[in-house]
Amino acid sequence: MTTEQLVEQIRKKKSFLCIGLDVDLDKIPPHLLQEEDPIFAFNKSIIDATHELAVAYKPNTAFYEAYGLKGWKALEKTISYLNEKHPEVYTIADAKRGDIGNTSTMYAKAFFEDLGFDSVTVAPYMGKDSVEPFLNFKDKHTILLALTSNLGAYDFQTKDLEGKTLYTSVLEVSKTWVNAENLMYVIGATKASYIGDVRAIVPNSFLLVPGVGAQGGSLTEVCKYGLNEQVGLLINSSRGIIYASKGTDFAEAAANQAASLQQQMESILNAG
Amino acid sequence: MTTEQLVEQIRKKKSFLCIGLDVDLDKIPPHLLQEEDPIFAFNKSIIDATHELAVAYKPNTAFYEAYGLKGWKALEKTISYLNEKHPEVYTIADAKRGDIGNTSTMYAKAFFEDLGFDSVTVAPYMGKDSVEPFLNFKDKHTILLALTSNLGAYDFQTKDLEGKTLYTSVLEVSKTWVNAENLMYVIGATKASYIGDVRAIVPNSFLLVPGVGAQGGSLTEVCKYGLNEQVGLLINSSRGIIYASKGTDFAEAAANQAASLQQQMESILNAG
User: Fold this and answer.
1) What would the pLDDT profile of A59-96 be if each residue is shown by its tens digit?
2) Which of A26, B20, B205, B221 is the most exposed place for a label (fewest CB within 10 A)?
3) Overall number of domains in chain B
4) Which of A125, A135, A154 is the best mutation test for B, with the most CBs of B within 10 A?
5) Cβ of B72 under 8 Å from any chain A Cβ?
6) Do A140 and A114 meet the contact criterion of CB atoms below 8 Å apart?
């Protein structure tokens, strides 16, 4: 999907909500465990109930890998379902991959071609030749970790690297890479006050913002600093939506939570 | 496997060779493509021919993920084969994972419990709470990326972070984490002259060293700076060994290459 198509969907749905499909068998409604593929059954219900309220879905691959072959199969079924039934939806493989050149190409093929995701999250530590192989793919986005929402972000990301912080250096250096227009960035909502600095460096890039909700980030704060002319934000919520209820009404409860966020987003877009 | 057991195997085999199982269907002998599972067939032959010369095997997960479900199945079969037939061998999932706390725990479960690897490579960018969940696992090692063998290492890793380079900061900060004794570090052989600095910070840790062979690193140079009293090195070679021949003699050719490296290692250990 192109950036323009994503923006079109955001305008149409009046939503820049991304729903994180981080499926933990210990947390889904117990009645689903009788299904042949409980993970996919859960995802399908969540997607069916929320796809008019969200513009993007983001499965975190860790949750699927933890269940081995069954988990990988559930991931394949989930992305196939999204691509077939809801092709207007933007898809993100939250994989945080990154390796040397030829190996990064293998990862890019895995997520963009084999699975058919629109985008994948990638770690910046190994530098240019670990990221550019992902950027080669046309109409696919590479979402680079810049400033993450966890406490460990202060260990290295916010430290001073030759006159800037490491994360601003990641933003600035990555702008010079080949096909940099295919980059987006992960910026945690728990650090909303930093988003102004981010926007000064990458005014036009989309930011994927986790940490609203369960982790305590504020939607209003993030939008205040992060919105740009093309909206430029994808706000992710995972647990707050998908685990809103453990009963048979889980999909309805998820839709209610998603609708609440979508309505706040609509107000913000209308005010903008 | 404990560090002591690994050292015992190194002394016994007079080898600190790790063989990278980076299987690309375009590069393996064409006659194997008729097998039901060509990737596993290739790995099994390589392992059978080299297990007395190598102390460790390191599949890079990217190569398996690129083939979807089939690839993941081949990875499962490979690690099961190693654990059942050659339990004395040390196993490394070269996955370069890393995510926030609860998600890192899912990855740790995937590699340590579900697949049964002895160790996994992890990226440091997200800091302490992204790595400590891996360190919780008893008798398992977490191999942190510090200084990688690719050109992109110069983008951030070797830059000055508050008076040190980023990679030395990663070494120093990670030493303070809970269960830090379960850490090993990736240090590229293409940067052998840096290994002295690394040893000054982590004198007792094992270093996993890629980049000897195809990428141009020198075994002698790496050993000069990197050996410690417990040997403390695992030298990885992938393409130079596993793709030594594209004929039906590929396993024998791989064994010859592995034997050549093992003999150099034996000389170095005897001289030490």
Assistant:
1) 999 999 999 999 999 999 999 999 999 999 999 999 99
2) A26
3) 1
4) A125
5) yes
6) no
